[in-house]
Structure formats: structure tokens, C-alpha cells
């Protein structure tokens, strides 16, 4: 009788243990599902905020340039074109990428996949190449100011922008040809096929590595040119008087010779037209030093901006392109966690948010235009 009782107790304990184990397993499963759902919602919110901020910041840049006549220059048109490109990234690429990144499943079909991939490659490449043409424009402006000021026209800026888009389209088109062969298949994911190693090398070098080398060279030369201007003698930091000379008179007045034909003693050579300006004391040394100080401050600010631009660009895009190239070269021998690859992808997209911030936050004219725009005043 005792044996039967003990056996019944053991069976009861086993049932209870199994039931508890099942309940605990169900509880863990439910907790995991809730945790995953919470992470997905959080990721939706974070990526959505980044996308919305990218849209708004680039729209503000475009509206500011459009409404402010003072900003209607070829250099600012290039910045405006960059803002349009980054806006396209935030509208055509980032929203779909949010759904794909969070769900890990492509549910939009083959045609939408082709459109999304083409838009992604084209717009992101165009954004990167815009940085190159902006750097090229600034390089010509600082190293060949007199000659380039004649060539720096809106038409020239338009040609540079057109070249950027042509190159970007040429880089994004090839995948469309081999993806058509899989159009009838069920599509579970939407990625560029890295098995085509020659295309991967062609696209990564055309979209990132070559532009990066060009940016480093250009910004390096711009930095050297800016530094040389900072430490150049004051007289070469921008002459206020090009066809006139200021000559200090013995009585404290100034002698201004319209032609540069007077000697240091105030004696006029033939052709000189002296004009005495009484009660006016021009402190030439102080004026030159002040211009030197302003010039040096501007050059330091410009070089600092260039460093931030280049650093942000490399920080955002280098991990993505390195991983893309490595995966293509080593194939199955290399493996990267999908979450890490998604992180690098969105780090690249983040550059479209950083661009308008950098290119406008360090520009006083843009700051003033932003303030007027916020106050709903048209800028002239």
C-alpha cells in the first residue's frame, strides 16, 4: 500500500514538474515575444525620427536658399542640390528601409525591390559625389580666385550637377540586368547580389573609394592654401586700395594719390592727382592688422568646417563600404551579423542628415536666413 502511495506521489510530482516546466517555457516564450515586439517598436521610432529629421533639415535648406536672394550663388546652388539629393534619400529610400530593417522580410515584390535598390544606390552615390563637386568648386575658388570667379556661373554648377547624376545612374543600373532573371521567383529578401565581384568593386570604388581619395586630396590642398593665407603678410590678405596709395602727411592728414605714381615723400610723379583730406586720420597699420585678424579668423573657421565635413563623411560611409567589399571578396569565408550590416547601412543614411547641418551651421549667412525664415520674413 505504501509502495502504491509513493508511486502515485512520484507520478504527481512528475506531472506537476512537467506542468511547471511547460508553464515556465510558455512564460519565457511570451516574454521573448514581448521583448522582441518592444525592440521592434523602439527601432521603428528611432529610425522614424532620423528619417523625419533628415526630411525637415533638407527641406529647410532648400527653402532657405530659394527664399534668400543673397544665397543665390553657384556655390550655394551646389549645396541646395546636395540637399535635394539627401531629401530624395529620406523620401525614396529610408522609409522602405525602416520596414525592411525591422521585419527582416521583403514583402513589397520584385518591381518595388528593383526601384528601391536603384533609388538607394543612385541617391546615396549622388549625395557622396555632390561632396566632391562642392570640394572641387571650393578648391578652384581658393587657389585660382581671379580666373575662376569668371567661370563660376549657374550654368557651370548645373553641368557639374548633371555629371554627378549621370555617374550615379551608371553605377546603379547594372544590377537591374541580372535581377530580371529572378523576377518569377518568390522574393524573401532584397539585396544587391555581392556574388558579382567585378560589379561590387566597380560600384564601391566609383561611389566611395575614388571620391574619398579625391576629397582627401582636395581638402588637403584647400587646408594648405588656407593656412598659407593665414600666415601670409598682412598686405596680401586682401588689399583695400588697389589703384590708390595712402601716404601719411606731416600734418596728420592723408594724401591719396589716385594713380600709384607718388614716392614715399609725397612727391608726385607726372600723372599724379593729389587730394588732401583734412581732419581725417587713417591708421593704416591698425586697418591692416584688423583685416588680417578677420581674414585669419575666417580661414580658421573654414578649415575647421572642412575637417568636420570630411570626418563626418568618412565616419558615416567607411564601415558600410568596407564590409560590402570584404563580403564580396571572401564570399562564404567571411560572415557578418545582419544586425551589424543594418547598423552600418543606417550609419551611411545618417550622413544625409549630417550634411545640411554641417553645411549650414557654420555659415553665418545661412544662420541669418534661418532666423528670418523662422520669423516668417522673406529674405533679400
Characterise the protein shown here.
It is a single chain. The chain is mainly α and 380 residues long. It has a single domain (2-236, 293-374), classed as Rhopdopsin 7-helix transmembrane proteins (Up-down Bundle), CATH 1.20.1070.10. The protein is built from ten helices and three strands. A three-stranded antiparallel beta sheet has the order 1-2-3, with no helix packed on it. β1 and β2 (254-257) form a beta hairpin. α2 runs antiparallel to α9 (338-361). The longest helix is centred in the N-terminal third of the chain and has 66 residues, at 2-67. Residues 234-269 and 271-281 have low confidence and may be disordered. Belongs to the G-protein coupled receptor 1 family. Residues 57-359 form the G-protein coupled receptors family 1 profile domain.
Give a brief description:
The protein has one domain: Up-down Bundle (Rhopdopsin 7-helix transmembrane proteins). Helices cover 73% and strands 3% of the residues.
Q: Mind sketching the topology for me?
A:
Blueprint: H1 2-67, H2 74-103, H3 109-143, H4 145-151, H5 154-172, H6 174-179, H7 197-230, E1 245-248, E2 254-257, E3 274-277, H8 284-330, H9 338-361, H10 364-374
Antiparallel strand pairs: 1-2, 2-3
Helix pairs in contact: 1-2, 1-9, 1-10, 2-3, 2-5, 2-9, 3-4, 3-5, 3-7, 5-7, 7-8, 8-9
